[in-house]
Amino acid sequence: MSASESVTFGKAAFRIGQFESLDPTYSAPQEKLLERLAQLHACALEPSPLKQGDITEQLRRRIERFGCDSSRIGTRYFEEAGFLPPSSESQTDGYDSKTGWTQRMDRYRSATQRVFESWYPEANRERAPGDVIHVSCTGYLAPSAAQNRIAELGLGDTTRVTHAYHMGCYAALPALRLAEGLLRAGSKKVDVAHTELCTLHLQVGRTEPEQLVIQSLFGDGHIRWTASLDGTSELEQSPHFEVLGHSERLLPESGHAMSWNAGETGWQMTLARDVPDRIRDALPRFVSELLQPHQLALQDCIGAVHPGGPKIIEEVAKALELSPQQIRHSHKILFERGNLSSATLPHIWESILSDPSVPLNTPILSLAFGPGLTLCGSIMVKRAPRP
């Protein structure tokens, strides 16, 4: 069976739920963050504080033209205090053109250790899962924060840690497959933990249009969720999703469309303008092949569409003829938090699961996109707690 074919799981139902999102340390309205972005760029481009005012005003206009404004994103969360407005125009607070890998990874380590301590407190060590999958594309450390926490709790002989790194925005769906594989290999419960510090990789001084789109779009996000098979954990005792199948496809001749590469001062992203068009053109067939084995109709589904940006959601809706009601949760998370890379789709799942207006037994079509250019999809159903 090829990677592009839909997969239907075996007799034991595969379920996910128990979402636990954790807000990063700081948050601010988008309009204030765009102002701060103009200040940071001005500091990087002009060393003289006396001249920075004029450059800041020019950059405000440029960001207003190319960036994601406050009508699309209302708030973003972040871990780096240097991104926090208001600040003096001469103050970079750790964000400058020479902030290198060591400093950025030190900040990633500090933030993720705090997150894992919150998710796995000493008091609940007896409820630790058999496996933890740590998902991230914004920081790599060995041992990771997940491994450190499991070791601190003395669970190294009962809990395994697997890393799903550098897949980008679509990584929640490959993590779904990894979790299913670990469960079918004998694990009783798998936690999937996302820690994304996208703003940590701000490239100050780079003001090309595509960079301003990226810098005004991404936020930080942390979320954990649990996967299990029928009857193997307490997950089924609360509302959850039953996963029916998934699909993945790597589009030909699309390697240039999106990238996430190592630079001297952190990860550097490129994003071609034709990404929404490429996704739109490939989606109808991709989704049809995903739904067909389960005899589900697209008009009956709620869409959990990864908001790579406002235009991505719009083009997906247009290609699949989805109504605003079907994709409202994608718009909601984008507005409330921005693009959180791999953590975004689980935030959308959490939103759908907690929304009483989404009836039980509603099919959920999840779609996410990443470097490659890769299309990922899954189909799951919202289920009631089982007695």
What would you say this structure looks like, in words?
The chain is an alpha+beta fold and 387 residues long. It has a domain at 7-14 and 237-383: Peroxisomal Thiolase, Chain A, domain 1 (3-Layer(aba) Sandwich). Helix content is 34%, strand content 24%. The chain has 10 helices and 14 strands. The strands form 3 sheets. Strands 1, 2, 5, 6, 7, 8, 9, 12, 13 and 14 form a 10-stranded mixed β-sheet that branches. The two termini are 36 Å apart.
Classification by helices and strands: alpha+beta
Overall 3D form? globular
* Secondary-structure arrangement, i.e. CATH architecture of the domain at 7-14 and 237-383: 3-Layer(aba) Sandwich
Rg: 21 Å
Strand content: 15-25%
What proportion of the residues is helical, as a percent range?
25-40%
Low-confidence stretches: 1-10
The N- to C-terminal Cα distance equals 36 Å
